[in-house]
Amino acid sequence: MNTIRNRIAVMHGVNLDQLGRRPAGHYGTLTLMQLEARVTGWAAELRMSVQFFQTNHEGAFVEELHRLEDTVDGLLLNPGAWTHYSYAIRDALEIADLPAVEVHLSDVHAREQWRRQSVIRDLCVATIAGQGPDGYREALVRLRDELGRTAA
Ligand code: DQA
Question: Are the C-beta atoms of residues 50 and 74 closer than 8 Å to each other?
Answer without folding.
Answer: no
